[in-house]
Design a protein that fits this description.
- By secondary structure, this protein is α+β, with helices and mostly antiparallel strands.
- It has one domain: Alpha-Beta Plaits, CATH 3.30.70.
- Helices cover 24% and strands 32% of the residues.
- It has helices at residues 40-49, 68-80; strands at 2-8, 29-30, 33-37, 54-57, 60-65, 85-89, 94-95.
- A hairpin with a 2-residue loop joins strand 4 and strand 5.
- The longest helix has 13 residues, at 68-80.
- It is globular and about 35 Å long.
Length: 97
């Protein structure tokens, strides 16, 4: 499936996503599915400790998701550690028109 970003639920910390290049000739709403958490650093520690594959990018941390069941696994692990987590559009409905 690919890498999913982990972003803060604090608006000022979500600005790292804006470096992402938009698709060429894309005339619809643009969205990026990712995990929104209260504490990105703690989420990285928890996921790394649970053997999820992580990578750093200019915009922050991304977690590798191989199949749909891993989406729920990530949320379960984060919630079990006391971190609120939601799977949501982290691009906030950017529009390329």
């Amino acid at each position: 499936m690919g890498y999913f970003p982990i972003v803060s639920n604090k608006p000022t910390q979500m600005e790292g996503l804006h470096h992402q290049e938009l698709p060429k000739s894309y005339m619809e709403d643009f969205s990026v599915l990712g995990f929104r958490v209260a504490d990105c650093e703690r989420a990285r520690e928890v996921l790394r400790g649970s053997c999820f594959e992580l990578r750093q990018s200019q915009g922050g941390t991304q977690v590798m998701i191989d199949n749909a069941s891993q989406l729920e696994d990530v949320m379960r692990v984060l919630r079990a550690s006391g971190l609120a987590c939601e799977l949501t559009d982290v691009a906030q409905g950017m529009y390329q028109g």
